[in-house]
Amino acid sequence: MNEIIQQVLLETVLALSDALDAKDQYTARHSRRVKNYSAFIAEKMNLSDKEILWLKKSALLHDLGKIGIPDAMTTNRPYRKLIPYELVIKEFERNKGVQFDPEITEIFLGVLEEKAYHLSQVIEPEYYL
After folding, report:
1. Is there a contact between 38 and 47 (Cβ–Cβ < 8 Å)?
2. Strand, helix or coil at 37?
């Protein structure tokens, strides 16, 4: 029974995440990228597998409250052009300890460098729920 409940929960989380990302072309797969970056950071922080699984589920829903509000620094938006990758990195560095947790920001920037991923790329295979 617990397995069935977990599967229903997972399917519900994925459905909500997909609905959120489907609101416009600019947010497609955003929540899954956030989930993957969160998992990379959590691994570096030595969180348990159980904590990482809950973090992934939570990350998929991180923008649920903003369903009607435009996102995202690294994509073109109706009201502004995308911010270049280098400036986004500088923004993270500038706001480390102010807007962003300093430890997690350092880990995130390290993950970007280590994985050589651009913020707008989709990282998927081994980090799918």
Report:
1. no
2. helix
The pLDDT score that the predictor gives to residue 89 is: 86
- Give one word for 29, left, alpha or beta, with left for phi > 0 and alpha for psi -120 to 50: left
Up-side HSE of residue 29: CA atoms within 13 Å toward CB?
11
CA dihedral 31, 68, 26, 16 (to 10 degrees): 30
How far apart are the C-alpha atoms of 53 and 87, rounded to whole Å? Answer: 31
- In terms of average pLDDT, the best of 2-6, 9-13, 43-47 is 43-47
Strand partners, 96: 100
11-25 residues labelled b (16+ CB within 10 A) or e (exposed)? eebbeebeebbebee
Q: Are 38 and 56 in contact (CB under 8 A)?
A: yes
What pLDDT digit, counting tens, does each position of 96-122 carry?
Answer: 999 999 999 999 888 888 876 555 554
This prediction's pTM = 0.58
Find all residues with CB under 8 Å of 49, minimum gap 6, and list them.
none
